[in-house]
Amino acid sequence: QAVLTQPSSLSASPGASASVTCTLRSGINVATYKIYWYQQKPGSPPQYLLRYKSDSDKHQGSGVPSRFSGSKDASANAGVLLISGVQSADEADYYCMIWHSNAVAFGGGTKVTVL
Amino acid sequence: EVHLVESGGGLVQSGGSLRLSCAASGFSFSDYSMSWVRQAPGKGLEWVSYISSGGGTIYYADSVKGRFTISRDNAKKSVKLQMNSLRDEDTAVYYCVREGGMDGWGQGTTVTVSS
């Protein structure tokens, strides 16, 4: 079982909100981890969006709009990337990441389509 | 502004070697850890290796352990990845990335391993 699991795709309408989930493998408690989020558009390298551990321990990437925010769903053992007021420019692949056991684990990525 | 430029990619036969380099500028290189992350064609992100700011702590993904070696030269503001015993599955774009949180990415260099 992968360390991090993301839905392969999701779609959102312009102006709506979109939530990308990143579920941690059973036995890995989301509460103890910093979850990092990246956006990648076709033909470009990934870009750092934000880091979220708690409301008191979070970081927004330089120049990243506040429309992008992080949170956790403890009941689902998951990190969440919330995109508020989705725009066509937000159409991209989104990856979550954690450091676990002296190694980096990435989620498989979620393709967000803006319809 | 973080500026990372990778070089050294190319076409190599299975079992061969390549040495990737990453030149850094725009930040105090010796203060930051660095990583290599790769992305196979049409696939997601895969972490390869990490080196601490002083070079004293190094980690590798299991998939490359024993074949790849990461190193850095703080005086030259560069980080390298020596890749030996290359396999078809090492074919990917290799990104040089700043910090454990991966807040800065290069444009990548392409490695193609042919059998």
Largest interface: A-B, 24 and 20 residues
Q: Which overall shape of chain B is indicated by the principal axes computed on the Cα atoms?
A: globular
Q: Shape of chain A, please? A: globular
N-to-C CA distance of chain A:
32 Å
Could you report the average pLDDT of chain A, rounded to the nearest whole number?
Answer: 97
Number of strands of chain A: 11
Number of helices, where a helix is a run of at least 4 consecutive DSSP H or I residues of chain A: 0
In terms of structural class, how would the helical and strand content of chain A be classed? mainly beta
Helix content of chain B: under 10%
Counted beta strands of chain B? 11
Biggest beta sheet summary of chain B: 7 strands, mixed
Q: Based on helices, strands and strand pairing, what is the structural class of chain B?
A: mainly beta
Task: Give the oligomeric state of the chains in this entry, treating copies of one chain as homo and distinct chains as hetero.
Answer: heterodimer
Summarize the structure.
The complex is a heterodimer of chains A (115) and B (115). Chain A has 115 residues and is an all-beta fold.
Structural description of this entry:
The complex is a heterodimer of chains A (about 120) and B (about 120). Chain A has about 120 residues and is mostly beta strands. Helices cover about 0% and strands about 50% of the residues of chain A. Chain A has no helices and eleven strands. In chain A, strand 7 and strand 8 (about 80-85) form a beta hairpin. Chain A is globular, with a radius of gyration of 13 Å. The mean pLDDT of chain A is about 95. Chain B is about 0% helix and about 50% strand. Chain B is built from no helices and eleven strands. In chain B, the strands form two sheets. In chain B, strands 2, 4, 5, 6, 9, 10 and 11 form a seven-stranded mixed β-sheet that branches. A four-stranded antiparallel β-sheet of chain B has the order 1-3-8-7, with no helix packed on it. Chain B is globular. At the A-B interface, strand 4, strand 5, strand 9 and strand 10 of A face strand 5 and strand 10 of B.
